[in-house]
Design goal:
Layout lengths: L2 H9 L1 H5 L2 H8 L4 E3 L9 E5 L2 H9 L15 H7 L9 H10 L4 H25 L6 E2 H6 L1 H11 L6 H15 L6 H27 L5 H11 L6 H31 L2 H6 L4 H14 L5 E5 L4 E3 L2 E3 L4 E5 H4 L34 H18 L4 E2 L4 E2 L8 E3 L1 E3 L7
Parallel strand pairs: 2-7
Antiparallel strand pairs: 1-2, 3-11, 4-7, 5-6, 8-11, 9-10
Length: 409
């Protein structure tokens, strides 16, 4: 099976549901391979799945992100291309510096009791929903609301708007997927981006009149003082992208991780009393079931990558999830091992675009998992999980469980 056949298999529905056999086949071709041009990806001629090569490209700021043709004509693309996640230095450096100042140790430390409070409240709701043996949708009742409520409090989003907000986020995520570039999905994403931009402008105006301790209030104050190099339009774009990136990965950390953890009852039994184990479980779930499966970077000049020629401005498809299961870097890479040593996973990226919300996501997992299994030691999956169908952001969207009927306080 050649590399083009592997990518064809990945893009099919069955491949998006279970991409890991295809990644294993990709590794048999080595860390990087040339591919035929594909309509799904503009100007991509190389695919890399080797951990060291993917990490090397992500760390090098000279390898850039390319804006798609005609991006100025689409609301969603204008939003993405004016956010730090999708631009290159020096604009990326300028924007990231503004937001990095707000992710202070003091602000992150203040999140810990917030996370515990949110987790405990959702566990109580799960207990009520699962009383008398009733099924609970773990995603709807825990995996989604925990990070959404935490980030809403951190950023300063009204809780009452979260359901409305999620609908718009889902439309944008659909468009970002490898199969999402259809006129219908583009139109829905454009509408969602426009509605979110209007919503954030109203929120910013409200925070000017009624400032608080949240991220938006702090950013508005910095913006109005003239101390930061950021326009209000850029602030809106970055808030849209930041909230999405900060909580979707945590949703999938929980939902993708639960079946993995339940397959290891010894780990589940030990988690409530072992904080170090909880951290190891978070890192290993992120490695084994990475929420983000691929990124792309363009070559700064004619070069070679692992011996494969890459032309200037040609995109390399970086298979994050494949790199996290590279047998050259991880012994028995398909096995769950919360005590695993070796290099860190690339789930949050690495280098200049390393995810700003990574520390929050890890903290949520480290605090939530022990409390989840302390409350529900007999938690069990009752139906086959439903995956998103996306390969860009791959995760379980519906996961029905029973709480076991024997919760402990």
């Amino acid at each position: 099976m050649d590399v083009d056949e592997i990518l064809t298999g990945l893009y099919r529905e069955s491949g998006r549901q279970n991409p890991y056999p295809w990644y294993a086949a990709l590794h048999r071709h080595g860390p990087v391979s040339a591919i035929a041009p594909r309509p799904e990806h503009r100007a991509i001629g190389v695919v890399a799945g080797g951990y060291d090569l993917v990490s090397q490209v992500l760390r090098d700021p000279a390898w850039s992100k390319q804006a798609p043709p005609g991006w100025q004509e689409q609301e969603i693309l204008r939003t993405l291309q004016s956010s730090m996640m999708f631009v290159n230095p020096p604009d990326h450096t300028r924007m990231r510096a503004v937001f990095a100042k707000t992710f202070t140790p003091r602000r992150l430390g203040a999140l810990e009791p917030v996370i515990v409070r949110v987790v405990d409240a959702q566990l109580e709701r799960m207990a009520e929903a699962g009383a008398d043996g009733g099924e609970v949708d773990f995603v709807a009742d825990f995996a989604y609301p925990v990070p959404a409520l935490v980030m809403a409090g951190f950023i300063g989003l009204p809780e009452a708007d979260l359901s409305w907000y999620r609908q718009r986020v889902d439309r944008i995520d659909e468009f970002l997927d490898v199969a999402g570039k259809t006129p219908q999905r583009l139109a829905r994403a454009n509408q969602a981006a426009g509605e979110l931009r209007a919503w954030y402008r109203e929120l910013i105006a409200h925070r000017r009149r009624h400032p608080g301790e949240d991220l938006v209030s702090g950013l508005v104050e910095a913006l109005d003082s003239g101390d930061v190099e950021l326009t209000e339009d850029e602030l809106v774009s970055n808030l849209i992208v930041l909230f999405n990136a900060s909580f979707v990965t945590t949703v999938y950390l929980f939902s993708n991780g639960l079946p993995v953890l339940l397959a290891h009852p010894d780990v589940v039994a030990a988690l409530p009393a072992d904080e170090e184990l909880a951290g190891g479980c978070v890192d290993e779930v992120l490695r084994l079931e990475s929420p983000v499966h691929f990124l792309a970077r363009a070559a700064p000049e004619d070069t070679t990558l692992g011996g494969v020629p890459v032309r200037r401005d040609e995109n390399v498809l970086l298979m994050i999830a494949a790199a996290n299961r590279d047998p050259a870097r991880f012994s028995d890479p398909d096995r769950f091992d919360p005590h695993r040593g070796g290099p860190p996973s690339l789930a949050f990226g690495v280098g200049p675009h390393f995810c700003l919300g990574a520390a929050v996501s890890r903290m949520e997992g480290r605090l939530a998992l022990p409390r989840l299994f302390a409350r529900f030691p007999r938690l069990a999956v009752t139906r086959t999980p439903t995956y998103s169908g996306s390969l860009f952001l791959r995760g379980i969207d519906k996961l029905f469980v029973s709480t076991g009927g024997q919760e402990t306080a």
